[in-house]
Specification:
alpha+beta; four-stranded antiparallel beta sheet; 1 helix; 30% strand
Length: 141
């Protein structure tokens, strides 16, 4: 079960990202720069107890079941992070299971309910029109 949480960098124009780690344990890196940060739309959700860093109009740290405070550094200096809604991922269009993503689920659920209702109303309307037209022809109205 994914318990995704996301942080977004509050600093604009970050040019260097190096490491992401637990604030209370700087010896275990949850993410370390290798070849740069990919666009968020090109990645999958991270594995359990891990984080990924990606770009989508800002720098995001996307973590799966990591509940401790995080620190990100670039160029030896800390990069401020704030809680954020998660970006959309490549494979499943999956988004965070907290915050605004529940709005997406609500809309999806409403569509699943509303579309069949519209189809039923439309079918009933067509039946009513046919019966009404048939009745008029039959009685010469």
């Amino acid at each position: 079960m994914n318990l995704l949480s996301c942080l977004r960098s509050a600093a604009p124009n970050i040019s260097q990202l190096d490491v992401l780690y637990l604030s209370d344990n700087d010896e275990v890196n949850l993410w370390q720069k290798k070849d740069g940060s990919p666009p968020c739309s090109s990645i999958s959700a991270p594995p359990l107890s891990r984080c990924l860093v990606c770009l989508q109009e800002a720098v995001y740290a996307v973590c799966n079941n990591v509940t401790s405070a995080l620190t990100m550094e670039g160029g030896g200096a800390p990069i401020p992070l704030t809680e954020s809604e998660c970006p959309v991922f490549m494979e499943t269009g999956e988004v965070s299971t907290s915050g605004g993503s529940q709005d997406h689920r609500l809309w999806f659920l409403l569509l699943i309910i509303i579309i069949p209702i519209i189809i039923i109303i439309s079918a009933a309307w067509q039946q009513w029109k046919r019966r009404g037209t048939f009745s008029r022809c039959r009685f010469g109205l």
